[in-house]
Amino acid sequence: MTDPSRSGPRHTAIVGLQWGDEGKGKIVDLLTAEHDVIVRYNGGANAGHTIVVGEERYALHLIPAGILYPDKTCIVGNGVVVDPVKLAEEIDGLRERGIDVGGNLRISDRAHVVMPYHQLLDAAREDCGAGGDPSASSGGAIGTTRRGIGPAYADKVYRSTALRMGELLDEPRLRRRLRAICPLESAQLAALGAHDAAKLDPDALADEYAERGRRLAPHVTDTTWLLHDLLADGRSILFEGANACLLDVDHGTYPYVTSSNSSTLGIAPGTGVPMTCLDRVVGIMKTYATRVGAGPFPTEQDNETGERIRERGREYGTTTGRPRRCGWLDLVAVRYSAMICGVTGLACMLLDVLSGFDELRVCTHYRLADGTVTDRFVPDADQLDAVEPIYETLPGWSEEIDETTGRDDLPPNAKRYLAFIEEKLQVPIEIVSVGPRRAQTLLTV
Ligand code: GDP
Ligand code: IMO
Ligand code: MG
Q1: DSSP code, position 115
Q2: Given 21, 133, 248, 279, which residue is catalytic?
Q3: What does the pLDDT look like over 175-228, one tens digit per residue?
Q4: Is the CB of 59 under 6 A from ligand 1?
Q5: Is the pTM of this model over 0.70?
Q6: Contact call for residues 68 and 52 (beta carbons, < 8 A)
Q7: How many CB atoms lie within 10 A of CB 119?
Q8: How does pLDDT run across 78-106, given as a tens digit for each residue?
Q9: Catalytic-residue membership of 49
């Protein structure tokens, strides 16, 4: 982190501290006003970031949430995996609603391409339970979004079967590459039992994706140089994290994670901008916990409490529509994420959802399988599955708070709940959110 007394523009990162859907879209939208450039550095169309402006609701998957402001530069960095079909749909959808998408959207020529066979492979692997623990309740499936994310990142690491955005702009090269790639992908699909899908036609794919490349060409550039030019020009950057810290492929609840570094640690490799640039890291957390897909979730409430949170919080996936698993706030997990991500301030989201509970439980420690009590998170999925959460119980509040305009005006027990979070995490709360709209935001710094 740079010296806070340094003058010049401030560069901020936004990151989810739980298992996704913490409300990052709302906070990116809020903080875009203070920055010139908004950059996505990881993930793909598995993300779903919701922004509510007046009566309009936008769900963005690949394009940075800053696109709603006309005068900002939005960048899809090299660490993102881009599905050109989804991206074109997103651009068209925004334009139909009067949002300008032109030179303000730049896409890295080194971002990897999600191809149709990646989605088929993702689905085929999930259907046969490859990857997870066959003894787990998910039957081995990870519960992915089936957007082809894992197979696209796998090809990036395999190298010989990967395609980057820049290659879509060179038709002969694309055709040559697809003729070499398709037999390998077809063989994998056939091995997974997806025989109908296994007959990939490289020339048909080359025709289609060259056309998609021509359409996206005006946006495609070397975004690493662009970002460094913008930095040299004194512009301030907002790094928009997708997915969340506990879904990070290295530091999350592996193997029930996504396939990129979705903590702030993914910023440098995913953009080409060094970590030393960062001045501020805003960790976004729900005031309870949710998770979509399979994997350990110690504070899950698969009961009336969970249902009540789901209904009040409208906890259904932005990308897949799946009901989200809901539970009490797990501060052991959030404290770990804040540490990994270097969080300097917190945004506590969806506090309004907790109105009406007599009591609120907050997990502060785990009892491990051997009886040891710890406040240290254990990211290994098997070990985490075996922990018993230890809770502190706090008094709830009955009042609806969605029209509150200041942190001081919240009911005393809501203030106490927030103070408890600050004390346990030792990080200041900068933002409290009491509803999806821009105005339902209490700034506390
Ligand atoms: P993201 O993936 O982190 O951007 O979050 P999502 O958009 O997937 O999910 C968050 C949901 O909560 C969206 O529907 C938001 O509109 C909504 N939301 C954000 N902040 C608040 C809040 O403070 N209260 C309520 N009730 N909803 C909120
Ligand atoms: P945002 O940015 C919630 C989860 C999936 C699955 C696992 C792996 O909206 O917070 P993948 O398709 O990435 O291979 O799925 O990760 N997941 C998310 N859950 N919000 C997200 O993004 C997610 N991105 C991935 O549900 O469990
Ligand atoms: Mg989401």
Answers
A1: P
A2: 21
A3: 999 999 999 999 999 999 887 777 899 999 999 999 999 999 999 999 999 999
A4: no
A5: yes
A6: no
A7: 21
A8: 999 999 999 999 999 999 999 999 999 99
A9: yes
